[in-house]
Each structure stands twice: as C-alpha cells, then as structure tokens.
Design brief:
Length: 257
C-alpha cells in the first residue's frame, strides 16, 4: 500500500486545543506512513516528552525530530533553546529533522522532508532575541533553523507539493551525503556545507573553478579566520570529488552527480 497524505482527524477528537490536535495528528501520521531514509525500516514514536527526539528507527537507531507548519514550509523553522542546539552541534548529537507542511482544512500533507543531522552546522542556526523581562521565561533565548541555508542535497523530500517520491530515490539521496557524518570537526563540516550551497546557487550541472571563486568575498565574511579562501574552495571541491558528490572533468571543470 502506498503512502496516504490524509491525516486521520478522528484520533484527535478528544483534544480541544488546536495546537494539541495538530501535534497528535502529525505525530500519528509519521510512524504510520514514513520509513527510515537510512535503512528503510519503520519509524517508531518515542514516549512523550522525550527531550532528544520524537521518533527513532529500531534498525539503525537513527533519531528524528518533527516540525510541522500549516500550508507552506517557511525559510525559518522555529526550534528550541539556542544553547541546547549549539551544544548538540558541537557534540554531534543533533537528531535528524522531519519537516512537514499540511493543509489545515483538508488535513492533508503537502510537503514532507528530512534534513539529515550531518547537515546541522552553525550556519543554519539563527539565534533569536531573548524573551522580554515581562515574559514567563524572561531572558530565554531560542533559535531558528534557516532552511534556505541548507543545501539542496540536505533537503530530502518524501512528499513535494503533494507528489510522493519513490522509496529508492529517497534512500539514494540519503546515501549520497552520508559521508558528511564521518566529519566530526564542526568547522570543517561547515566549510563543506557552504561549498555545497555555493554550487547550488550556480544553478547548473557543470561549472568551473572560476564560478566558485565568485563566492570568495561572501565566504571570507563567514570564515573570518581563514585568509586563503581560494585554496579552501579547491580543497573542498577535491574532497567532494573524492566522495563521489562531484566529477572532475579536467581543466578546473566539475560536474554535479
């Protein structure tokens, strides 16, 4: 049986709060319709109020946190405490993120994707302003996930604009960038993710070294402690070539695989 995009509205009948109803509906849909993008087995829901994640895979032990939003996915996804998130990044403890958008009236899923945890670097986390002194949690600092800073390879769609993607394609896209999980140094991983993003912005399958050099100024502002940006660009392209993400065509030319 294929994936169903309808949320089962009846399971939330006893809840009055709209936010509670949405949480129950979306959290019930995931384990009934979604498989683990890493190994293909079923997703299982953790017990309620677990601080780390919402779901896990019994096979490969990947963990997933769910964020849902009405209608369309925003460029900024509201998350929890900034300090907690940065600690998770620095200790390589961030879960994978499931992102869902849904139609509030029809209660149907419109988009559902996973951001693998190995794409979580400081560049995709935005620190929010502290809560005001009049707030119940005065001074608390939250964070946003900047979806626009996640490379396209890090946005793996199960459902895109109501179109369900084949399981084989989803798992292939997951495997394509799993090499990032081998990089434990957060600064190095940040460079790789930045170069992937620069390649995305070129919007072409084949490109040359000079195309990437055009991002030198922007990269120098992100990485203020590096004074050899062009050398670093070449280094990361060679790394991505060695990992099978790019093909080197000779004479400074590359092809995105």
């Amino acid at each position: 049986m294929g994936m169903r995009l309808e949320l089962d509205r009846h399971i939330a009948d006893r809840y009055k709060s709209p936010s509670q109803r949405v949480r129950v509906l979306t959290e019930a849909w995931v384990p009934s319709q979604v498989f683990c993008p890493s190994c293909g087995l079923n997703i299982i829901k953790f017990e309620n109020n677990r601080p780390v994640a919402d779901f896990y895979c019994r096979g490969c032990e990947e963990q997933f946190e769910l964020k849902s939003k009405q209608r369309t996915l925003a460029d900024r996804i509201i998350d929890g405490a900034y300090r907690t998130m940065m600690s998770k990044l620095n200790n390589n403890e961030a879960p994978n993120f499931f992102l869902m958008s849904y139609e509030p009236l029809q209660l149907g899923v419109t988009n559902f994707l996973v951001i693998p945890k190995h794409f979580f670097v400081p560049q995709i986390i935005e620190k929010r302003q502290p809560l005001s002194q009049n707030a119940r949690r005065a001074g608390w600092v939250g964070c946003n996930i900047l979806l626009q800073n996640v490379p396209l390879a890090g946005r793996i769609f199960f459902v895109e604009n109501k179109l369900i993607r084949p399981k084989e394609e989803i798992m292939r896209n997951w495997r394509k960038t799993v090499f990032l999980s081998e990089e434990k140094e957060i600064k190095n991983k940040g460079w790789i993710v930045d170069i992937m993003g620069c390649i995305d912005r070129l919007k072409k399958k084949e490109f040359n070294l000079k195309d990437l050099y055009a991002f030198e100024e922007g990269l120098s502002k992100k990485h203020v402690d590096n004074f050899h940006i062009k050398d670093k660009i070449r280094q990361q392209l060679q790394f991505l070539r060695d990992k099978g993400y790019l093909e080197f065509l000779g004479q400074g030319r590359y092809r995105l695989l």
